[in-house]
Amino acid sequence: xxxYFQLRGKIYYHELKQLLPSLGNLLAFILxxxxxxxxxxxxTALISLSVIADINTPIEQRVIYQGGYFLLLYFxxxxxxxxxxGLNYQHYLASLxxxxxxxxxxxxxxxxxxxxxxxxxxxxxSIYIPNFSTFISQLHFPIFALSVLIIAxxxxxxxxxxxxxxxxxxxxxxxxxxxxxxxxxxxxxxxxLIIMIEAYYEPLSYMASKVWSVKYxxxxxxxxxxKNPASVVIRIFFCSLFISMATYVQYKxxxxxxxxxxxxxxxxxxxxxxxxxxDNEKFYQLYPxxxxxxxxxxxxxxxxxILPAILITLISCVAIHWWxxxxxxxxxxxxxxxxxxxxxxxxxxRNFFIIPSLLSGLLMYVL
Amino acid sequence: xxTPTLFCIVVLSFKSPVNHLLILKNVSKFYQKNAVLxxxxxxxxxxxxxxxxxxxxxxxxxxxxxxGLENSSVGEITFxxxxxxxxxxxxxxxxxxxxxxxxxxxxxxxLLEYHCSQHNCPFPTxxxxxxxxxxxxxxxxxxxxxxxxxxxxxxxxxxxxPKCLLLDEPTTGLDAKSREWLLDFLNSYQGQxxxxxxxxxxxxxxxxxxxxxxxxxxxxxxx
Lengths: 367, 223
What we know:
The complex is a heterodimer. Helices cover 80% and strands 0% of the residues of chain A. By secondary structure, chain A is mostly helical. Chain A is globular. Chain B contains nine helices and nine strands. Chain B has a five-stranded parallel beta sheet.
């Protein structure tokens, strides 16, 4: 039993070590920024628990804080999913004569290790509620803690991103019921119900398992992204985190960032978004003969393949304009630098792909 | 020891010369600095060919080049007097090879549907049934068996009824029933068929002209 746990622990540690270099195409210093951002976001999440715990927090604020908390926990565990479940060694692990309950207990323990404070903090706080009457009056928080627990389970169990819980539920709860006086308990109960339904039925996975008719090249790429969405999701997560933190800093300092800070922000975003092209290049390397056998032209396929990056860019542009009040000249720089990074990745691969966008950024700064 | 060429009966007049001619002019292929094919010249002017030769001589590479899936390092490959890399020629050719990795995240049906939408041909329900792949249509490519992969690869080659079929070891991995059907299908196929195989069904089939690649490939002299 003890040896089995040691084995699972070693697999988890080994997989984590493998995970970090896989983010290597974002370059070392961006990794350090990401690392700091993740630490900072964990701390922010823990601080936000006080807002979540307060029963008098307004609906919109509660939805934003809880939604952000769920998202953070989901991604924190999701990126470690293969390591937690030992998926790369699943057949070997299945062949071991270890009781199923022990395997599940090991997975649960590793999930706690992976989820760390964002997973444990709400549960521990719920346990510390002093008496039953307080428990009842503060019921929204134990329900929130239960939701956190189910989110951790969903991030391991479900194959698809829980759109209904993370996108549909917050919009409906904050906008749809803005006319009605909902309290924190009702909101959390409704949200928990949606999470449980999604955890159990997994509607997107059901839809994905349906055999859709494929007639266009774009559909092929869409299916490939949906089967392995990690790369796109990580980029969306990083951009959201980066823009949110920049907004927070600007809000706290009551200042708009200087020109060169704006250019730096744009450049970091362009590298993160444009490096998505590595995935496309990997796709081309995986299926070179099949792609060459297609009747459509390479240029057309290339344009289709960069659409996700362009979409993230456009959304980021809107977000930057909306929340950061960056000047329009600077915002226009983002799609240009993303395109430059995409083309640089295709031309120079890992070696020099940041240089062209860096030079264009410096040029903008000089101008 | 007799070479496979000697087992083959060369039929020059059984089938009329094809209108769509595949021509290789001084074709060489290097991977980095390693030559696989060197100075290959050949006119595929008959209806049936079986390319034979020892392992690693470049049979699969030759088919890949002929289908326009890989670029030749030197030389020119034309079909119907036009480059094989042109879209109009890709419509006229069909290739099946284990070397072609298919998108593993798609199902067999999705792959075939996309293929048919590209070539504007009907969904090959009868061919699928004859090859015994109907039950695996909704299976993802990654989950198909070796035989299943061979069948989907063959279906992609033949579904649009190309003028020229390029088949790399077409019977490998097929079950007896599918293999028998395929051989009958190829025998009655209207277009040109070029296969690479060591199987007697092809090498000793009087419909097929055997081409010994070692005789065409100048690089083989160096081996």
